[in-house]
Specification:
Layout: E1 23-28, E2 34-39, E3 44-47, E4 51-56, E5 59-64, E6 67-73, E7 78-80, E8 87-89, E9 101-103, E10 114-115, H1 117-121, E11 131-134, E12 139-143, E13 148-150
Parallel strand pairs: 8-9, 10-11
Antiparallel strand pairs: 1-2, 2-3, 3-4, 4-5, 5-6, 6-7, 11-12, 12-13
């Protein structure tokens, strides 16, 4: 809708600008609150009463109750939870307040990165405590701050 275009879809909306300052598509609820917004800068915003999602040229941001719970950004699509928000896998309840990552299962385990000794020792500036499975030694290895050690 708008402009002299030849539609290529059943509904086609063409924005009138070229930046995120102009809106190409806006869907509001009956109270006038934005539910879906697409701007001319290729950014998408979904807004609900408690959850929000923004997809921009910088990545993806998920919010729950105005707190960012997940960011996916960077050229490699790095996912992170800001501000030390705990992350759970296979659980409906995070029950360990001291854990940043909790994985619960009675049928599956945790699989750390697997690599050869050469690949392991090629890691630039490994953090103390970094863990990998060394496929040459067939055992777990960790970086103790000054070198690699095996369990």
């Amino acid at each position: 809708i708008g402009g002299n275009i030849t539609p290529t879809a059943r509904l086609q909306v063409k924005g009138s600008g070229a930046t995120s300052a102009t809106t190409a598509l806006l869907v509001e609820n009956s109270a006038g609150f934005d539910l879906l917004k697409v701007d001319d800068g290729k950014n998408i915003y979904l807004n609900g009463s408690a959850a929000k999602m923004s997809i921009t040229g910088n990545g993806l941001e998920l919010k729950a109750y105005n707190t960012t719970v997940l960011l996916v950004d960077g050229p490699q699509g790095q996912a992170r939870t800001p501000s030390g928000i705990p992350f759970g896998v296979g659980t409906s309840t995070l029950n360990n307040a001291s854990a940043i990552l909790q994985a619960d299962s009675t049928t599956k385990g945790f699989l750390p990165p697997r690599m050869t000794n050469s690949e392991k020792t090629s890691i630039a500036s490994p953090a103390a405590g970094l863990m990998v499975y060394d496929t040459d030694a067939n055992q777990m290895s960790y970086y103790n701050g000054s070198g690699w050690a095996n369990f």
